[in-house]
Amino acid sequence: MASDVEAPSSPGVDLSPVIRKEQLKHEFELKRLERQVADEHAARLRAENQVRHLTADKDSIESDSAAMFEKMINEQKELRKKIDFYEQEVAKFSNQASELSRDLNSAKANIVDKDMQLSAVQLELKAAQEKLQNAEYEKQASGFESDKTVQVLRIDLNARNDEISALKAQLESIKQQYSSDECVSGQLSEYVAKARALEQELASVRKEAQEGQLAKDLNLFLEEEKLQLKREIETMSSTAKENRLLQEKVARLEAEKEIWVVYLRGHSDLSSPQDLAKKVSDLTLKNKALSAKVSSLEHDIQLKATREQSEQVVQKQIELESAQDELSATKIKLSQRKFEIDNLRKEVQLLEAHLDKKDTDSDLQARLDQAQATIENLRKQVSDLEKEYANLNNDQSSKKRRISEAMLSSRSQTSSKLEQVESELQEKSRQLEIAQLDLESSKKRVEQLELASKSDTKVVELKGSPFEADVAPRLALLDALEREVQDLRKMQEENYAPEYVPRSSLLTLKVEYDVLKDQRAQLESKHQSFQKAIAIREARLNKAIDQLFGYNIELLSDRTCLLRPELEPETVFEAQFDDIDRKYTSFRVTDNVRAYESLYKHWALERKCLPGFLSAVLLELIDKKNN
């Protein structure tokens, strides 16, 4: 390079050392720039490796948090389903208890009627005795009455005495039955109390499921993970920015190096080193200005992209909120449709019950007209429900399409929410399909009723049905009472001299006694089935509570219970409650589990949170098992 530069021929001045010095300086500067480029390239590689590691850590944390969040949601859904099932069972038991109470009240009313009939028979007996005494007095006074009339009256009196003794025996048996019915009513009251206790336990289970310490700890953990991910994302963005700046600087230095080399090769005829230094400084300043302009443009582009992305996220959030509002409205419509379907079923059942073959032609015609009007109304309602179902289905499909588009364009933070909305939509679709099947079955039943009402065929009665078992004894009692009334009217018309109780009255009492006996047998069978069902439900409830909370709970009394972790059954905790608010007043850790004394002091004594202590024990046992 020194041979390429020729010094100007000026008399008395030798510039070759100065030019050589400048050339050496430029070569040293080029080597320094090369070392700086190599260092920056190594730093860029280290930054890229760090970015890759941070990205892998971020992906693993996101997958773990998503799995934990999904598991928590599934557990809450299962708990909500079990709570709804237990509430339905408790309502069913309450209805059975009310039915048994009504049957018991009817039995009491029948007993009161029997007492009244017995008093009437006693009054008739007294009247017969007075007539007998009057007949004896008349015989003694006149002497013209025959002994035959007296004998007949005595026979009648003896028969009445026998009837009274039989009625008294029946009354005693009925009273005994009444006492047993009182015992049954007492047991029913106890079962109702147990059902209420089950309702309270279900309410407490729901409260613990909603406000449990495990859910709070999990939410805190997710928040901390979210903050950590945000910090890592910020670090990654700053590292990427530094990497980008380093790349720009390396490119700028390489370009400057090439420019210097080409410039020095092509401009060997420079007049002086001052001109060379001036050109170098001008080019450096121009390069710096251009670099600053490029960096500002890149910063503006990055800000614009970030702003557009944030606006898209806000727009998707607004669309999600509107979709959730529409889903809530759809849920309300679905509940209304279910209520209308239940009403349609009840109306159809009433129509089936009112189509009785014993009615007259006029009554049957009136009922048929009423049934036809009701059927027309039901048809209109069914058509309206089908239209509303079609509209709901269209709305649902449009919502699915919008939400699927939002899922493709939104960030990873909103993907979990969109999946939850999709699952809820699938559940609503399944409920709509069930409602459609119910509507179709209701339409078929209405059409069958319409055909049965228009045709001359008779409805076949179902033998051995619960309706027949309930109505048959009442019809038999009604027929017996009608026969008794006819016999009494016949006696009143014929005016028999010796008035006595007709045989039909005794038969009526026998029929009533048989009816009461059958009712008692039915009540006893219902009581046994009710007791078995309660035992089964209690066992299922205890098993569900043990599986959900991880503790086997054993009630020693109304105020004391023992808790045993399923992962370590030899560990036993004892809790005592008060009688009013059912709050725990003391909690005791047994001698063989003193290892959890520190957890108990931290959670139960300092923070006043017994569920937190139990959850901490479970987490420690899980860690021991995994390790």
UniProtKB/TrEMBL annotation:
Residues 30-256, 306-533 form a coiled coil. Keywords: Cell cycle, Cell division, Coiled coil, Mitosis, Nucleus. The keyword Nucleus applies. GO terms for cellular component: kinetochore; mitotic spindle; nuclear envelope. One of its GO terms (biological process) is cell division. It is found in: Nucleus. It comes from the Eukaryota. It holds the Pfam family MAD. InterPro entries: Mad1. The keyword Flavoprotein does not apply. Belongs to the MAD1 family. This is Spindle assembly checkpoint component MAD1.
